[in-house]
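Allow me, if you will, to draw on your knowledge of protein folds for a short while. I have a record of one protein: its chain in single-letter code and its fold written as discrete structure tokens. I remain grateful for any guidance, and I place the record below:
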Amino acid sequence: MPASAEQAGLERWLSRAAADPAGLPDAGYVALLGADGTALERLCALADALRRERVGEEITFAVNRNLHPELRFRAPERFSELLVEAWALGATEVCIQGPLSPATPRDGALQIVAAVREVLPEIHLHAFRPAEFAAAAERLGLTPQRFLERARDLGLGSVPGTAARILDDAIRARLSEGTDPPVARWVELIEIAHGVGLASTATMVYGHLETPDHQVAHLRTLAAIQDRTGGFSELILMPIQPEQVPPVLAGAVRWADARETRALHAVARLMLSGRIDHLQAPWPKTGLALAAELLAGGADDVGGILLDGTLDPGAGPEAGRSLGLEQLESVAAALGRGLRQRTTLYGDPGPERREALRRGSPAPLP
């Protein structure tokens, strides 16, 4: 297609999206994912205006600590100390993801929930990806629903909607070397979580083997789940990282650039308008500078500050990645926006949590 015709097509899709953001056919969103130059700026401005309409001007963030579940069994005292330290630094959430080894107790996942509740009954526990809670259920001879009901009653607050990757069976099989559950199973599990009252994040990992058509299909699947359950709290789009790529695919991954990242976030804001209000700028995956651009192009949240603290900076999967409050304030000021600490489910953490963060804000990124 000649450049002039392609530009005219983008103009038409942008005009239609301005009138009905969530009402375009797949072909329209695929075309917008290719926007560049002036068309990209218009797309991002449209997404940002929609963000303003849906959630207002504040940039939100949570304060959390990520821990691997094995820590609870390898070093239980350190596990408790890290929880207490996170609370002292202003955290409202602890996120626990990762497989449990066969050496841990059969009810190890439930023991983790109980341990967190015993040490910090006030903190929100965000834990267990779909495949992880399915495995925990199987170890106990329970259905996933029954396991989640027991975990919920013990104090589990929400589950990560991660490991969605791209919701296409062929691509999932290649990226995971055959270990990921099929798309239908992932959808079934996340809907079970929503059905027992546990909200989850909605996610996508992009920039590898997928095409724009796959990206649009993935977002359509998330929209359909949200229509059925209403259980997604936010959307997180993450560019794939080198450690997530199997060696056999090292030369096949294209890696997403800033243009693709900006276009994808803007299109996601349009497609999911009225369904998922909160769109995260995932600074640990994109870097802070690109995250700031995303906040000017449809995103409203920066996710978690990800506390490192001083007791064991290497304890979590995001080790070495901590964002200072002053840096966040500078980003918000540069965008002319307010800044607000939130809970996992976008509530108000209260003055005591905000003051704790002010007293012990983590060190800025180097």
